[in-house]
Write a structure and sequence with these properties.
alpha/beta; single chain; 19% strand; five-stranded parallel sheet
Length: 479
C-alpha cells in the first residue's frame, strides 16, 4: 500500500456535503446538487462502477414505477440528467414516444443511471469508506477512506472533510436465519435472488428448484425458471410466508401512500402506531405486479392445454422452520403451514431466496458517532422531517439518510418515485434556501383529521438544536 495521499480538499476547503454510497438515491441527490454552484459535494462508493440490482435484470422485467420516477424529473423536469434527456442523447426519443411506455425495462433504468454516473462530476467510485468522525475543533466531519484499484485491492489511504453527510448505502439481501448456514456453504446451491443471474445456468440445470418468497423478485424468478423448463418436467416449488400470492396495491388512490403528503402524515403518528401500521401495509410494496401474476398463470395454463397439470407447486402461507443438507449438494427444507399447523419436508436441488432486503447496518462505519445519535424506544435512530439523524446539539453538522428511515417516514422511503422529492428536501435544508420549491399538496386523499402543518418558511439560520436542524454554516471558522 502506498503512503496516504488525500484526494479531497484539505480541512480549510471542506466539502459542504459528502455522500457515502452511490445508488439511485444519492445519485439523484448528486444530480440535483450539480447546478447549485456554491455547494461543494463529493460522493463515494466502493464499487468500481454504478450497479443497480445486476442479478435481477432479467429480460423483459420492468420497473413498478412510471419513467417520471427518474433521478430528477419530479423535482426539476428541465434537468439535463432526466431520463428523457438520456433518451435524446442516445437518439431514442422517437422510438420511446412510439413505444408508449409508462414503465420502462429495468435494464434501461440501469443503463440510464450508469449514463448519469459516468458523466456527472464529483462521483468517486473505488473508494471504500472506513470510518467517520466528528471533529469538534474543526467543526467538521472527518471521513477516512481506502482507494481501491481495479481488482478491489487497497491502493491508497485518504481523508476528506465535510460540513454535512448523507448516507445512501442502500439495503442488503436478507437471508432467513434457518438458511444462513446453507447459504454460506459453497457447495450447496442456496442463493439470494439478488445473485440470480450470476447462477442462472447452474440453477436451470438442477433437477428440482425451490423459490422462497412471494414478492416481485420471487415472481419474476419463478416465471423465468418456468419459461425455461420443459413442459411436464418443470419440477418447481414456489413457497411463500405471506397468506397469498397477492397483487401489489396499484389503484390510483392506493398509490397516494407514496406521496409526500402521506410521508408527512406517517411521520407525525406516535411511534407505536407507526410500528403497528407498517406490517399491515405489505401489499403496498411487497405484493406482485398484476401483469407478472397474469403471465405466470398464462404460462401454467398453456402447459395444461393437452391435459394434465404442470409439475409446479405454488404454496403460500408456508415458512421454513429448519433446513439441512442431504448428501453434499441437496437441501431438505422443514416446512410449516401457518394456518393449518401442518408440517412437512421438501427435498430440493437448489433454493432461491427471494426474501427481500434489509436496511444496511452502518454501526461499524458510524461507531465513533454512536454516542451522538439519538434513538427511539426500540434503539433505532431518530430521523427528523428533513431526513436528518437527530444528533446531540454539540454536533453542528447534519447527517442525512436515504432509504434508512422507513420506521419514521413510512413505506415510501425505498420507493424510487420519492427520490427526487427527498433530494429536494435535503438540498433545501442544507442550503437554507429553496433551490427546489416543494409542492404544498400531492394527494387527493386527506390523511388524518388534523390539518396538515403548512410548509415552514425557508430561512438561512439554524432552528433549535433539539431538532438538529442546520444549514451550511459558511460563517463558521475552520481551525
Amino acid at each position: 500500500m502506498t503512503s496516504p495521499k488525500p484526494a479531497a480538499p484539505p480541512p480549510d476547503q471542506p466539502l459542504d456535503l459528502a455522500g457515502i454510497g452511490i445508488g439511485p438515491f444519492n445519485l439523484s441527490l448528486a444530480a440535483l446538487a450539480h447546478p447549485l454552484g456554491d455547494l461543494r459535494t463529493a460522493f463515494y462508493d466502493q464499487n468500481p462502477t454504478f450497479q443497480w440490482h445486476p442479478g435481477l435484470l432479467i429480460d423483459g422485467t420492468t420497473l413498478q414505477v412510471p419513467f417520471l420516477a427518474d433521478l430528477v424529473s419530479l423535482a426539476d423536469p428541465t434537468s439535463p440528467w432526466s431520463f428523457l434527456n438520456y433518451l435524446k442523447t442516445r437518439g431514442r426519443l422517437f422510438p420511446f414516444y412510439f413505444a408508449e411506455r409508462q414503465h420502462i425495462h429495468r435494464a434501461e433504468y440501469d443503463a440510464y443511471c450508469r449514463w448519469v454516473s459516468e458523466n456527472l462530476p464529483g462521483l468517486h467510485f473505488n473508494h471504500q469508506i472506513d470510518a467517520v468522525r466528528w471533529n469538534p475543533e474543526r467543526v467538521l466531519f472527518e471521513i477516512d477512506y481506502t482507494q481501491l484499484d481495479r481488482e478491489g485491492e487497497a491502493e491508497a489511504l485518504g481523508r476528506s472533510y465535510a460540513r454535512n453527510l448523507v448516507l445512501g448505502v442502500g439495503t442488503a439481501p436478507h437471508v432467513p436465519e434457518p438458511l444462513r448456514p446453507l447459504a454460506d456453504a459453497p457447495t450447496v446451491p442456496v442463493i439470494h435472488s439478488a445473485d440470480y443471474l450470476d447462477h442462472r445456468e447452474r440453477l436451470l440445470a438442477a433437477e428440482h428448484i425451490t423459490v422462497i418468497g412471494a414478492g416481485q423478485s420471487g415472481a419474476e424468478v419463478f416465471l423465468d425458471l418456468l419459461r425455461h423448463r420443459p413442459p411436464g418436467q418443470e419440477r418447481l416449488h414456489w413457497l411463500a410466508r405471506s397468506p397469498a400470492f397477492a397483487p401489489m396495491e396499484y389503484s390510483k388512490l392506493g398509490l397516494e401512500h407514496f406521496t409526500p403528503d402521506y410521508t408527512h402524515y406517517f411521520r407525525n403518528l406516535p411511534e407505536p402506531v407507526r410500528d403497528q401500521l407498517l406490517p399491515q401495509q405489505w401489499q403496498l410494496h411487497h405484493g406482485i405486479d398484476a401483469g407478472t401474476l397474469a403471465a405466470i398463470h398464462d404460462e401454467l395454463y398453456r402447459r395444461s392445454l393437452h391435459g394434465g397439470w404442470p409439475d409446479a407447486t405454488l404454496t403460500p402461507g408456508v415458512f421454513v422452520r429448519t433446513a439441512g443438507r442431504v448428501g453434499t449438494t441437496r437441501v431438505e427444507l422443514h416446512l410449516e403451514h401457518a394456518q393449518q399447523g401442518a408440517r412437512s419436508r421438501l427435498t430440493t436441488d437448489a433454493v432461491i431466496l427471494a426474501t427481500g432486503y434489509r436496511e444496511r447496518r452502518v454501526d461499524t462505519l458510524l461507531a465513533a458517532l454512536d454516542p451522538y445519535i439519538r434513538r427511539d424506544s426500540s434503539g433505532r435512530p431518530r430521523v427528523d422531517e428533513d431526513h436528518r439523524l437527530v444528533l446531540d446539539p454539540s454536533v453542528k453538522g447534519a447527517i442525512h439518510v436515504q432509504n434508512a428511515e422507513t420506521h419514521t417516514h413510512g413505506v415510501g422511503s425505498p420507493d424510487l418515485g420519492l427520490a427526487a422529492w427527498r433530494s429536494s428536501v435535503i438540498l433545501n435544508a442544507l442550503t437554507g434556501k429553496t433551490p427546489y420549491p416543494l409542492p404544498e399538496r400531492t394527494a387527493f386523499t386527506t390523511f388524518g383529521l388534523e390539518p396538515r402543518p403548512q410548509p415552514r418558511p425557508q430561512t438561512t439560520g439554524s432552528s433549535p438544536a433539539s431538532e438538529n436542524r442546520h444549514t451550511i454554516p459558511r460563517q463558521l471558522p475552520v481551525h
